[in-house]
């Protein structure tokens, strides 16, 4: 089979490479010629574990191609996937669909055979229906079918998520669309992946409801963490205790500095706008958005309190600034709120992040970038762990203690063992777990 993937951002590139792994012939299209040139030179525009190898392998096999013009990609394509960005529209929180519709218009103009157009981009309920109307208007001569196939890829484990998903959701209206998508995902039958065929509206809503539910789960445990701190309970154990109940599940119950990234913040807002348009209050999601925003600011107070209420003139080592590990993505990262707030209070910030520097230099002016953790913490009055990169888990706390000026450790991801940190001489503050005095 043959497909075109429009957009070589996170979703498009990973999905394109993974469809090639399924044996499909894939042409990825992106208007940004410099991105295509980069990909053709074997370099990845984003950091994602395993992606470079996967792309190289399928390019070499001739199954994966890149182009900056649409026509060659449309040639003979059974399906055309739209995987362009749908950022938050400035000012009103709605998803900005201008790239989706620009792509759709180009497809309508360029197609010379009946085909299926599939939205992989996260698009609000009703978008598929609008695309159907657009195609009928622009190409009354050609049957262009529409389907919705939302992605559930986590940055950092996107390839695994594509190749071994919990489920695949396909919103379709015709048997032909169903057959095409079933054929594209056929390799997943071997691992008995549930493939759900629904209406287009249902598929579109499943995507938003999934992300909003996960954001709710995280926000729930974050608030429970706050309560744990007051009553002397340990949120890690609470999370385990509730998560072992099969009805709740263990995943996405890690308390931290609040969710970030390119999806949860954007999708929760967009769902709220859709609900508003239809006059349906979604009070839970509304509260989740507000609590999460407030949380990032709360973390600043937590750090300042751990430093005896004063950070002016002090040096803070920040470990990790990306919104989560195994990505270079800084979008909506809690660090973008926390670091500038500490700077505004007069702190000097030194940062180490394994992949975040390139983006971070632009987004976090005035910080000192260090090439490893130990360089960052040298002479620090506090170490603040913001992102749980694996390499931070292995930090030698005794060595760290010998390098800092003040032994204050604020662990916003509960990575370190409080007892071990205390034995190394640190005053330890975690999230939702009892703090520890040094040597206690
Ligand atoms: C998320 C979803 O997990 C994917 O299924 C979805 O496809 C994707 O959005 C999308 O819509 O494109 P992603 O944003 O890459 O993926 O990252 P997550 O791993 O979900 O983490 C999101 C945020 O929640 C991060 O800031 C992370 O640190 C935070 N988080 C996650 C917690 O604070 N606690 C947890 O238990 C889990």
Outline the secondary-structure elements.
Elements: E1 2-6, H1 10-21, E2 25-29, H2 33-40, H3 51-60, E3 64-67, H4 70-74, E4 79-82, H5 98-110, E5 115-119, H6 127-138, E6 144-148, H7 158-163, E7 168-171, H8 175-184, E8 195-198, H9 200-231, H10 235-243, H11 264-277, H12 283-306, E9 315-319, H13 335-344, E10 348-352, H14 357-363, E11 368-369, H15 373-377, E12 382-385, H16 390-393, H17 397-403, E13 408-411, H18 418-423, E14 427-429
Parallel strand pairs: 1-2, 1-4, 2-3, 4-5, 5-6, 7-8, 9-10, 9-12, 10-11, 12-13, 13-14
Structure in words:
The structure is a single chain. The protein has 440 residues and is an alpha/beta fold. It folds into 3 domains: 2-198, NAD(P)-binding Rossmann-like Domain (Rossmann fold), CATH 3.40.50.720; 208-290, N-(1-d-carboxylethyl)-l-norvaline Dehydrogenase, domain 2 (Orthogonal Bundle), CATH 1.10.1040.10; 295-429, 3-Layer(aba) Sandwich (Rossmann fold). Helix content is 44%, strand content 13%. The protein has 18 helices and 14 strands. The strands form 3 sheets. It has a 6-stranded parallel sheet, sandwiched between helices. Strands 11-10-9-12-13-14 form a 6-stranded parallel sheet. Strand 4, helix 5 and strand 5 (115-119) form a beta-alpha-beta unit. The longest helix is centred in the middle third of the chain and has 32 residues, at 200-231. The protein is elongated. The N and C termini lie far apart (64 Å). The mean pLDDT is 96. Bound molecules: uridine-5'-diphosphate-glucuronic acid. Residues 122, 151-155, 211, 214, 218, 252-254, 256, 259-261, 263-264, 267, 323-324 line the site of uridine-5'-diphosphate-glucuronic acid (UGA). Uridine-5'-diphosphate-glucuronic acid binds at residues 122, 151-155, 211, 214, 218, 252-254, 256, 259-261, 263-264, 267, 323-324.
């Amino acid at each position: 089979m043959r497909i075109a993937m429009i957009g070589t951002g996170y979703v498009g590139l990973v999905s394109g490479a993974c469809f090639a792994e399924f044996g499909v012939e894939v042409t990825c299209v992106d208007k940004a010629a410099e991105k295509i040139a980069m990909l053709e030179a074997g370099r990845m525009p984003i950091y994602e574990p395993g992606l470079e190898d996967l792309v190289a392998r399928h390019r070499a096999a001739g199954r994966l191609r890149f182009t900056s013009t649409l026509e060659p990609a449309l040639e003979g394509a059974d399906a055309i996937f739209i995987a362009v960005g749908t950022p938050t529209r400035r000012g009103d929180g709605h998803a900005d669909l201008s790239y989706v519709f620009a792509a759709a218009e180009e497809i309508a103009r360029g197609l010379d055979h009946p085909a299926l157009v599939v939205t992989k981009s996260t698009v609000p309920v009703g978008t598929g229906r609008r695309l159907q109307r657009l195609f009928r208007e622009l190409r009354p001569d050609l049957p262009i079918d529409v389907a919705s196939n939302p992605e559930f890829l986590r940055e950092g484990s996107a390839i695994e998520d594509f190749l071994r998903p919990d489920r695949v959701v396909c919103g379709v209206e015709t048997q032909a669309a169903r057959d095409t998508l079933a054929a594209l995902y056929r390799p997943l039958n071997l691992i008995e992946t549930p493939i759900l065929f629904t209406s287009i509206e249902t598929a579109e809503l499943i995507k938003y409801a999934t992300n909003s539910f996960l954001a709710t789960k995280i926000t729930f445990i974050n608030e429970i963490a706050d309560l744990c701190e007051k009553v002397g309970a340990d949120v890690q154990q609470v999370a385990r205790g509730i998560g072992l109940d099969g009805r709740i599940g263990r995943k996405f119950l890690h308390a931290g500095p609040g969710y970030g990234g390119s999806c949860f913040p954007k999708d929760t807002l967009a769902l709220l706008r859709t609900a508003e348009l239809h006059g349906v209050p979604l009070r839970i999601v509304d509260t989740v958005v507000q609590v999460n925003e407030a949380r990032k600011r709360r973390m600043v107070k937590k750090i300042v309190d751990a430093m005896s209420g004063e950070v002016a003139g002090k040096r803070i080592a920040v470990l990790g600034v990306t919104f989560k590990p195994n990505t270079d993505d800084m979008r909506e990262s809690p660090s973008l709120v926390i670091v500038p707030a500490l700077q505004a209070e007069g702190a000097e910030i030194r940062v180490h992040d394994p992949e975040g520097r390139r983006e971070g230099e632009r987004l976090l002016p005035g910080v000192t970038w260090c090439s490893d953790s130990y360089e960052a913490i040298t002479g620090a009055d506090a170490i603040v762990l913001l992102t749980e990169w694996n390499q931070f888990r292995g930090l030698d706390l005794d060595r760290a203690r010998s390098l800092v000026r003040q032994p204050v450790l604020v662990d916003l991801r509960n990575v370190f063992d409080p007892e071990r940190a205390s034995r190394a001489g640190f005053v330890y503050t975690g999230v939702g777990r009892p703090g520890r005095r040094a040597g206690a």
